[in-house]
Amino acid sequence: MARVLVVSNRLPVTIYPDREPGENDVAISSGGLVSALRSVVNDYEQVMWIGWPGAFVADEQEQRKWEARLKEESTAIRMVPVWLSKEDVEEFYNGFSNASLWPLLHWMIPYARFKKAWAESYRRVNQQFADAILRMNRPGDLIMVHDYHLFLLPILLRKTSGEFGGSLTSPSRSPRQHTGDGSRVARPKDLPPQEEDEDTMPSSAESGGERAGERRPAYLPSHSQSSEDLERSRFSSIDADCVAWHSTGDTSPKGVRFNASAPTGNNSNAESEKPPKLEPPTKLRIVFFLHTPFPSFEIISTLPNCAEIVEGVLGADLVGFHTYNYLRHYRSCVIRMCGVHPEIDHVTHNGMRTKLGVFPIGANWRSITEAMATERFSEHLKNYTQQFQGKSLVLSVERLDYSKGMPQKLAAIERYLERAQGSKKKKQQKAGKEQDGGDEEADSHERERQDRLKELQDRFQERRGGDVVSKHLFKMRTSFRNWIGKVINTGQMVEALDHSRTIFLFIAVPSRQDVEEYKNIEEEVHRTISMINGRFSTIDHQPIVYIHRSVSMDELAALYARADCCLVTPLVDGMNLVAKEFVAAKDKDVENCVPGTIVLSEAAGAAQEMFDALVVNPYDEDAVADAIHVGLELIKGTVLDEESRWEVTGRMRQAIMQNDAQSWAAKLLSELQVFVESSANTHPCGKQIGILPDFTARFFFESAPGTKAIFFDFDGRLLKEDHEETGGHLPPLFDEEDHELFAGLAARQDLRVFIVSGSSKDLLESCFGQYESFSLIAENGFCLKRAGPGQKFRPFCPQSSTEWMAKVKPVIELFKRCTPGSVIEVKTTSIIWDYSGCDDEYGTFKAKELMHLLALSLGNLPCQTMESHDSCLVEVKSLQVKKGLAVRMLCLLQEEAQEQFAEVLCIGDDDADESMFIDAPQTAYTVKVGSGPTNANHRLPDAARLRHFLSILVKGKAGLGTTSVINGDSIAVFKSIDERTNNVSAAPEADDSEGDPLAFLQDQEESAEFR
Fold this sequence. Notes:
By secondary structure, this protein is of the alpha/beta class. It has 29 helices and 33 strands. The two termini are 68 Å apart. The model is unreliable at 170-281, 462-479, 490-494, 682-686, 716-731, 957-995 and 997-1011 (pLDDT under 50).
């Protein structure tokens, strides 16, 4: 059985070093999360909780003593403390977590403050938590990280354990934005500057030194390191982010190419050169759950180190949110800040997959039920029933925080009391005039009343963003809709209640009273309550009762049971369990418990689940006042009978008791286990593949005599529409070191090199025209220039149809016009829409829209669409033209000429190259460069590794070959066959008498030639 390591900022206990041992020196919390985790203890070997114990203990001996003391106090859950200093708590907790992150996560930008020292402390404390976890972690443990205090912890765990050494964003990188010339800038100019340490800022050489607007081939690195560095140090290990492990169960030719046959010749030790089989790695299993909202990109990007925060969460295998809206905002930030393109439920990055999910947390209804079974509860409820006899009770339980909307709530209450007071006066006036026979005045008053009710009805039916009827009523059952209709229908509503006798009971739990912003909120609330009470109180009635302290569970449960309405209107909230707890307490089998209803903010996560609540816009004081009025009339008026009143919350109560905190915890941990144990986590295609070892280069040339072939993908930069105006000048895509590699490949007489590209003939000619021994295949296989002097491009698939292009081009041009920064390239058999110069998120959105539109409109046309997230392209191309068909045809031509290639190597790096991997001969080496799903049977982690492999092909001997071992702690180094045998073979010379099976292309008619 696995263990569960729960990690949060605070332990569910508080220690008191100034007290004597055993005399309340350890106070244990009984929160919902604690109860939820206690319920899953029996399903796992052990549950351990790691966090700060709430006190400062500097002395190491005292720390050891308290660790032993906490171990003694631990029962079902073992407590493991992380010791923080006063400075850490001040800067990490009060500073960055609560003064920077908390307001932004709740859309409260004016309250946010930033300091570089806070961010540094935040990183330091997160690293301290990572170290503590790794000291306790064992293989197979489930690590459950909670909340915004530990945003960086998942990625730090990966890096500290050696699993992950890369980064999606450079230290200086922030939200990705585009300038007019296509270059990147760090942040929008109107946002606060990001503070960076000077020692973490990369130099121009370290960042690649690439020119603005230039796109190098994806698999060719920038030369910030020398070749010697690349061979000796860079390849001493393989980054875990690009490792996909060799499958031991696949016996197909492609699956066993890693263990290829020994080379022929005098190498008696060849069999010993086979690498050992690799076992699946033992990796950390991490789930991160955010208990707060996650804001939109525009909000979170005001944080100077926002990209670091977003990337930190991606270290987890599973990331959970309360609602889909929060998940959607996070996906948007990943696109814009990290430059990757997530799917709807996962993000593939750095060779791993992070699943995104929605897991709304439930209420701990069992603790409420337990409290309701006590004598103290019965006493409290009896007293409240007598105290509020003949009055309506509206309950509000909130922490005194600016995100809870207390000023707005008080404004709505004042509006409600104004209407109630006015309605009471008019009733009194009407009664007096009826006694005097004033029928005309009575009719006038009735018309005014009807107008007010009509206004109320219209407001509920037409309001957008906070209404009950028009926007959220579809969540309610038909009977509930009918009940509300009776309340607000003109001429049918009879105000059975004296709304001026309503009591609003506020329980405002103190929060962060040493923070200036919270002091100001507290003063404003106290002042407003005094003003309202002074205005609407009478000798025997005070409308607002204010309790500025926390209350016990039995007392709170009694208030839940007695209240007629619960007012939960935060400005924004992750979930808000008060609404769920209120419904859970509505048990009609409990004596003196009364039915109730809820007025719930649409900005609370609970609004997604509580389908029979009166959902309102918390900023609309009229809407909130109306909802209170309607809710009380439903529960205490004449519209419903007693049984129907209980039905208002009955269905919600059943759902809340089924989806409680315990089921939430069990589902979250179960989802993590299922995900990490599935192959989808490490390799989206479900096929595990191995890193291409260096000695494969020798196997490639010595496994069998004959000519070998390399099909090498190349896709250069898309040409701008105005490139003719600049003389058609192309920035250099290769440097001297690149050309040395190409010249070395061209010099091998036993090797045929095919450059297979989606680029145009002109671009291929400008890049590779000097290498006459290269065969160039342009536009995904539509035309070919065979090797040899004086050759020209000729059609290779002349039967392909391009009539569809006239129908597709206007559609793509329309998208180009409405997507600033995008360009179109029209080729012979394809049309490409490039949105790399657009805003990342908007470009991705328009690309999805275009793909959907093309899928609906293309019908039976002989073309297909393909989207490449990495290259920011949408391509529509002929079905009869693709790289895989070209590779297959060339290999078949060789077979027909009785000159079959002895070995075939296909190398590619993007989605367009997958057809090469599929259609290549079964015995071929197919190599995916980079991470991501693939049909290839081998992988190279990055461009530098490919350069190293090609250099071995050129030199004819292998250097140090490396293979990453399971946990990254050790590297198995396989020395080359040459070093063991001291037998370095030169490249064999080819027989000049051999014929060229592609010679038929030279005889094609000039009319078919493409210029």
